[in-house]
Amino acid sequence: MNIETFLLCDAATDSMGKLNVLGAFDALNTQNFPFVLPQCSVAVRIRLQRIEQGAHKITIHFIDDDGKFVIPPFDGGFEMNVGGNERSGVANMIINLQNLNFDHAGEYALVLAVDGKEISRLPLQVRKIS
Hints:
- The protein is mainly β and 130 residues long.
- It has strands spanning 2-15, 18-24, 27-30, 35-49, 54-63, 74-80, 88-102, 106-114, 117-128.
- A hairpin with a 2-residue loop joins strand 8 (106-114) and strand 9 (117-128).
- The chain is elongated.
- The mean pLDDT is 95.
């Protein structure tokens, strides 16, 4: 299993297996708290080998620097079937988020787990600027 993409971005779409991403970021700057981010997307592209095909569970947690959930965890799943003579296949996943509320400055994180195992962690710095 290979995580080809795990991004926080302004927007993402999937068009016939092509993952389109706009405005990837890892930091937010604000003058005031609480701060509300009106809209963003989480884009994930996972490549699996033929031997890994079948059903898989995916979980994404969005946590603050104390490990508290910013939003409830996303739990989902996907089925990977590698066809023909191909050695691998990909699964694209997009989660659209709206009105994310940040109470304080700090390092937040998106945590990606597949089949109960953490496989990637994406930091997000939220900074207070003057």
